[in-house]
UniProtKB/TrEMBL annotation, chain A:
PANTHER family: BLL4819 PROTEIN. The chain crosses the membrane at residues 81-103, 135-156, 163-181, 193-210, 222-243, 271-290, 302-323, 329-352. The keyword Coiled coil does not apply. Keywords: Membrane, Transmembrane, Transmembrane helix. This is OpgC family protein.
Amino acid sequence: MREPNAIDFWRGFALITIFINHIPGNVFERYTFSQYGISDAAELFVFLAGWSIGLATRGRDGKPEPRLTTVLRLLSRTVEVYRAQITIMALALAMIAGCALYLDNPLILEWHNAGGFFADPIQTMVGVVVLTHQLGYFNILPLYVVLIAIAPAVVLIGRVSRAALLAMSLTLYGASLVFEWNFPSWPGEGDWFFNPLCWQLLLVLGFLANEATRESERLRHLWRSLMPLGVVIVAVGVVLAVLEWRPDPMLAPEPRLVFTFDKTYLSPARLIHFCGMVLAFQGVYALLAPRLGPLARFLSGLGRNSLAVFSMGSLLSLAGQFVRFQTGGVIIVDVSVVGSGLFALGFTAWFVEWRSRKPRPARKAPDAASPSSA
Amino acid sequence: MPAPPAASAPAEAVDQSLSPECRVPGSKLYTLARLKAVKAALKEKRPVRVLSIGSSSAGLGASASYPVKLENALEQALPDVQVDVEARGLPGEVASGAGERLRSMVAEVEPDLVVWQVGTNDALARVDIEAFGEALEESVKWVKSHEIDIVLIDPVFTESLADDAYYTEMVRTVQDVARREAVPLVHRYAAMRYLSTRGTTEVHMLGRHFRLNDLGLRCMAEHATRAITLSLLQPDAAKLDASKTDGSKADALKADAPKAEPTQAGAPPLDPAQTGTPGSAEKPAPPKQP
């Protein structure tokens, strides 16, 4: 079990933010950082995932592990994430259907985009399994599956040449923005909510940021010295968010997506804002950790077991939405829902680690002298 | 054609141009307003692009047919006109950012007409009604500012929410915004409420509320087409427009009246004025626009 560290801490923070943001209308939503800037927890999550891939594919001494091991490790991770996605989709659909039956209210079936599944299960079932049909608020894991699936290529190319990796990633990103390439949704029209062709850039940036800063003192120094720039960018973001100033997509010059604040295509504005946030807040963990020990431990615990915590968080936020629907969104309800949700997330993290700490001891093979085989 | 209701008539006649299972009195179904962009497209004899935005089942199952049905119904109602309907789902709440996605979608598709089913997601999320109303009005204003027509469809009616004050308030907010912005509105809530009072032999395995939902989805294309074609007949004169707005105000008030009506089967209230006056005198297939 890792010691609390910055990456796990911020990942835990992202998970909590995502959990709160997935209960729309609740009173805590306005206090999440997504409301004060133009990027949000999804960017943080993917960037940190990229960073951890860099960490995970090196041995303890920091040397990169053999190529085959990397490929297999990331492949097994892909399967794990895919499994989680299918499981939570099934549970979420069951929760929605169950709630609709219990309340005798067919409107509930529309929740989270699920109306499509109940209207036409035949095509949609296939779509769910191949990840082209996504429930609302359950869009991050399909993106994550695709990103981890291409991660071996990212790591191996990066080992050969970081510049080449960055160039390829930027080219793909740029082309997708200009030509509006995206993975299609099926059934139904439209595309994926998170465009993997664009979001892969964040993964690569996270990976490269880890690679670059681990080796070069000069780059680490540069990283630190850019903090004031980061603060400026964050301040601009706050102003834009508070004034609700957004570029009008109809008036933006071609290529349109380069100039709007588009989440699906990870518009440059959002990317720059996020980089500003990373630069501005880079030192915060080091400042906070000694002063807020229990909080740092709690968040790091969540971050260490991010897949399980994210899965539980998605389902809990759905349950929270049902509770708010029935009771009407009063403050006391919001507080209890979010509070019990956070408690449950903490428990999930602890439970997952307990399970891995208590493996069943290997059975010994019965030998000829034992009484049972007599 | 519906005859003008006499003072002693117990019920208002239903709109005969709809299929039997979907027949609803005109005043319960639509508020009309001009559709300039669509008229311009008809004048220029180019295909009419329609962007249909639904909450989630847009494009699948019972409403899978909705975009196709809408396209066919519009092409039938407007002979020699090609209509292209593009259907998209808009997950999320208007009050928290769906407006942004709407703008991106509109910028991508560049339609002449947007048909927007609005309010369901926000109602489910119990968002603050004022915030919703403001965000909705902003989005409608934005669409109009780009010379694109917009037709709103208010939220679904279901029995368990019939007496829910919040939900009814939400429906009223959509009606208010439609009236203030002078855009056509399909009164899905009132129409489905009316349909729920009619007896039927149709049975759904999960009960009559699910049946009504299915029916509502099936009828939506017809109802929307009716509102659109009647709106296209609206004369351009500003004076007549003002009287339509008054008519729609009366209609919005009447749409509230069903709230007080008993939910068991009974005659719908008498409506002295019908919105969409052309409806009482027009022929089944409106003539092609010059």
